[in-house]
Amino acid sequence: MMLRSKLNYFILLNFYLTIVVFGYQDGGSLFSQISQQPTTSFPVTENVDHAKLSEIDDCGPPPDLQYGELKEVYMDTNKFPKDNIVYYKCRPGYAPVRNTKTYITCLGKSQWSSPDVFCNPACGPPPVLEYGDLQENFVEVAYFPVGDKVYYKCKPDYVYVQGTKKDITCLEELEWSVPDIFCKPAPTCGPPPGIQDLEPKEAYLSRTSFAIKEKVEFQCRPGYTFSLFRFRNIAASCESNLKWSFSHPISNTFCKRKSCGNPGEIINGAFEADDFTFGSKAVYKCNNGYRMLTKRNYRECLADGQWSNITPECEAVICENPSALTNGYYSPDKDQYEYLDSVKYSCHQGLELIGEASVYCTSDGNWSSNPPECKVVRCPEPESVPNSRKTSGFYGPYKLNFAVTYECFRGYQMVGSTSVKCNVNNEWEPALPKCLGKCLLEPPSLEYAELDENIFGKTFLEDSEVSYRCREGYEPVPGTEPSIKCLGKKGWSTPQRFCTLRSCGNPGEIENGRMIATNNFLFKSYVIYNCSKGYKMISNSKLYCQADGTWSSPPPTCEEIICATPSITDGTYSPEKMKYSEMDLLTFSCNGNLKLIGDHSLHCVSPGVWNSSVPECQALCDSPPVIENTVLEIQFADSSYFDINATVQYVCQPGFSQMPNTSNTITCTNNLTWSTPETSCLRRSCGNPGEIPNAQMEATDFLFESKVSYHCLTGYKLATSINFRQCQANGNWSEIIPACEVQTCPVPHTGPKESYRPQKKKYQYQDSISYKCHDGLSLFGKTSLTCTEHGKWSSFTPHCKESQCDKIWAIQEEMRKCTSTPDDWIKYLQVEYLHLQIENLKLDIEWKKKGRKQ
């Protein structure tokens, strides 16, 4: 019994430890099932309608004012809640008073606050002037307070008169001051410009001036007519810029020359003409063998469309009888020889015919050549040519046109004709040739000179010469010859230097400056001049020695840098000096509270100018004040100063809306301050964005830039990338709407010894499954698992193994049969317990791994 108790003790202890292990892991699952309490969300409160709460404490109609009247928006309202504000505007004949309130407030119990006197009697519309128009910002203003000024601009066709004022002032008598005559009529246009082939019509030719917008009509010049019908109304207008504007684009094709038609054909002749229009000339020519009978051989197309002169005529050409031939004769012999008739000459026997054997009658009435002659011809034996041999004509006699030919030996080139003939003067012609040696190399290239001819492909023979010319910037050396000679096989003769660099001479020093020179004033050298401090360079500071031996320009001069004395109206500058030199500094300031427009200080810089324009002093307002949640209209945003009476307009920033019944403009007043702004911009509302399924909403308000957050309920998870919506500037909520979807758990994995029910493709929050072992096995772990809000099962997957109880009973049966001592069994059981602990530890590690994967 003691042995059984100890065994049971160890087994129970082992089971207890296993339960502790399982309990720890189950406890972790249990702890994980403790859900967080959802964040408390507060309902969003809408704006309270205070008007309903104050109905018992309101005001009746606002009071009537002598100088002001309610704005139209309040005309049909008889009851106003407490704290409500109503705005007035000035009555006709009154103008606003600067820096006063144009509204009153309901104090409750039918009491209104006391109004300011915000309008005063005013001048009516400014007078209409013959020569000027009101500037645009005064046109729509009906009344002007005392002291206000309005400004005019010159009408079209008028120009401003310098030194006059373009403004008038509203006087205390509520009348306008007398205006200056500040505009005068604009100048007129001179005569219109001439256009090729066009001229003004006769009515305009004698005039020298034309009024603005006056038109001048044009016509074609004599001898021309309009090329198209639509050009018959060409005119030019005198524009306001005193330039002429034409009714058609300027073109050279407005007019075309008049046509005279065909000038007429002639017998035995023809004419040549570019065309048959005005200014053209038809030139007549007789055919070959005919000559002109009339004095003029041309006709001209005149401005009236008629041809000048009469049509020319042609007659046949006759040649005189040919001259007789001594010791010879010609044939045929006729009484009259006409154009192209010919005769043939012949000599008596033994004589040579010298000249043309046949002549003919030409188109000018003369024979084609002089008559030949008959004579005896014999040439002497020709001389021998060195370095050559004869190839024909070895023996005489050498009669007329008898030829002798030569050829040069190898290595020599013939100069002259290879053949000579015996001529009528008993001489050989041309002169006998020469056979000369060659220069194998081209003429040398020289740094100071270049060949005077193109030698590409040329052959140079003995005794031939080539000439050089000096390169650009070089000049000939007196007494030298710019050429070399070919010495045949010996090459070229050695040239002597026949060109030298050209000098420009010393250009000289300058006053109030100095010169830096290079290369002894020779070609391509240069000199640089620098002025002393306080002086500026007049003309080029760098001179180059040119190829023709002259400097690129005369030496410069250095002139003292002096800036002109500036002038500023309604302002001063310092220091005041008789003369301002380089780097002198002037500081400007304006009288009174006038604004300085431009740079506050100027420097005198080279070449004697101020580094910027002289500033101006003007009565201007500074930049308008910054109003919360507003921006200036874009046309006013970049301006630093504004004229008196200038009005600027504000607009609400994106996401804000203007408060009703308030003005969004302010005006620059006479005291150079801005009128009190009324503009108030409130955040725009996007309205309630609405709830979403399976979520709670959190928000403070629904106004611009606010966010509403959505939190999914327990068992649901966020299906979108964000969990909020934001109110945008356009009054809409951001487009992405959060969504919550039910939480899911993965499909469980099982081994071959266990199974679970129910089996689904998808398990959602709070779904449960139950495990079961196959027959003869025991379940280690929880038999039931639940899908939690975190998407995990409430415990690890259980496992089925053989029952330990059967093993324990087997051990007890063996103990009955065994004769071992109790101590031996205790040791055995301890070893078995250690083995069970190791097995339990392995299971524990395996379960933890599977739990992480889930």
UniProtKB/TrEMBL annotation:
<feature type="domain" description="Sushi">
    <location>
        <begin position="187"/>
        <end position="257"/>
    </location>
</feature>
<feature type="disulfide bond">
    <location>
        <begin position="773"/>
        <end position="800"/>
    </location>
</feature>
<feature type="domain" description="Sushi">
    <location>
        <begin position="684"/>
        <end position="742"/>
    </location>
</feature>
<feature type="domain" description="Sushi">
    <location>
        <begin position="743"/>
        <end position="802"/>
    </location>
</feature>
<dbReference type="InterPro" id="IPR000436">
    <property type="entry name" value="Sushi_SCR_CCP_dom"/>
</dbReference>
<feature type="domain" description="Sushi">
    <location>
        <begin position="561"/>
        <end position="618"/>
    </location>
</feature>
<feature type="domain" description="Sushi">
    <location>
        <begin position="619"/>
        <end position="683"/>
    </location>
</feature>
<feature type="disulfide bond">
    <location>
        <begin position="590"/>
        <end position="617"/>
    </location>
</feature>
<keyword id="KW-1015">Disulfide bond</keyword>
<keyword id="KW-0677">Repeat</keyword>
<keyword id="KW-0325">Glycoprotein</keyword>
<keyword id="KW-0472">Membrane</keyword>
<dbReference type="InterPro" id="IPR050350">
    <property type="entry name" value="Compl-Cell_Adhes-Reg"/>
</dbReference>
<feature type="domain" description="Sushi">
    <location>
        <begin position="317"/>
        <end position="376"/>
    </location>
</feature>
<feature type="transmembrane region" description="Helical">
    <location>
        <begin position="7"/>
        <end position="24"/>
    </location>
</feature>
<dbReference type="InterPro" id="IPR035976">
    <property type="entry name" value="Sushi/SCR/CCP_sf"/>
</dbReference>
<feature type="domain" description="Sushi">
    <location>
        <begin position="377"/>
        <end position="437"/>
    </location>
</feature>
<feature type="disulfide bond">
    <location>
        <begin position="379"/>
        <end position="422"/>
    </location>
</feature>
<feature type="domain" description="Sushi">
    <location>
        <begin position="122"/>
        <end position="185"/>
    </location>
</feature>
<feature type="domain" description="Sushi">
    <location>
        <begin position="502"/>
        <end position="560"/>
    </location>
</feature>
<keyword id="KW-0768">Sushi</keyword>
<feature type="disulfide bond">
    <location>
        <begin position="531"/>
        <end position="558"/>
    </location>
</feature>
<feature type="disulfide bond">
    <location>
        <begin position="347"/>
        <end position="374"/>
    </location>
</feature>
<feature type="domain" description="Sushi">
    <location>
        <begin position="57"/>
        <end position="121"/>
    </location>
</feature>
<keyword id="KW-0812">Transmembrane</keyword>
<keyword id="KW-1133">Transmembrane helix</keyword>
<feature type="disulfide bond">
    <location>
        <begin position="408"/>
        <end position="435"/>
    </location>
</feature>
<protein>
    <recommendedName>
        <fullName>Sushi domain-containing protein</fullName>
    </recommendedName>
</protein>
<keyword id="KW-0732">Signal</keyword>
<dbReference type="Pfam" id="PF00084">
    <property type="entry name" value="Sushi"/>
</dbReference>
<feature type="domain" description="Sushi">
    <location>
        <begin position="258"/>
        <end position="316"/>
    </location>
</feature>
